[in-house]
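thoughts on both lines:
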Amino acid sequence: MISRSALVMTTLLGSLLASGVEAQTLEGTLKKIKDSGAVTLGIRESSIPLSYLDANQKPVGYHIDICNRIVDAIKVKLALPNLKVNTQPVTSQNRIPLVTNGTVDLECGSTTNNAARQNQVAFAPTTYVTTVRMAVKKSSGINSLAQLDGKPVATTTGTTSVQLMRAHEKGKSVNFKEVYGKDHADSFLMLASDRAVAFVMDDNLLAGLIATSPAPNDYAVVGEPLSVEPIAIMFRKDDPQFKGLVHSAVRDLIKSGEVEKLYTKWFTQPIPPKNANLNLPMSEALKAALKTPNDAPAEQYNKK
């Protein structure tokens, strides 16, 4: 016969085990990853230095490194040390659909967190803050939006650069012609081949493309800042379990100083494939974002 104390202990143990199982019940993206044994990272092929391909066509970059740290947290959470990591190239045009339809679990690129996108997807705490400006050839003499009247201006399909130009008070009376590249490398090629006189994009991406171009001294990043934008890792919304893991992992990286170390590695030191140095010290806006980690949209950065 089981003693009363043993019965109580058995019942308590059973309750604890049951609550433990319940606490570990997986939902959403974590369940998908657990069931498949794989996680898929969305990567950009020319978003230097956030996410791009090196000389061996391997995805590398600041946000690739951060995503890999998040994957480490997923491995621990799911007790899957041998979790398979797949990569899926994405573009500015298809990145959100590929996240929302479940093809990509973490988008590790150069995506601006704004209010409109928050209606479709979720974001990790901000890990980069960019200023939208334009790259030009120094020989053009262009240094202002006002000088673009009647001229072709390149931007990348699926980005907000042209809308920002038109919304900017100095750009409202400028009649420029938009030409679109399929990705950032294609847009920069339009500038390099004189099919456009300017390429409007995030300053870090422009700096990266210039630094790794055949003639970096031929170009400059100029003009009025069109917008200040938080850039972050993107994932599916309405998935509190996965969001909790992602946010916790990124906050831990920030708190430990790892994000600052990764920033130094990719923005102020030589990077592959040409050992170019972007020489972009951390901005005050990013320092502030890291001091109080958050997923605030761009609209909060541009309040007047």
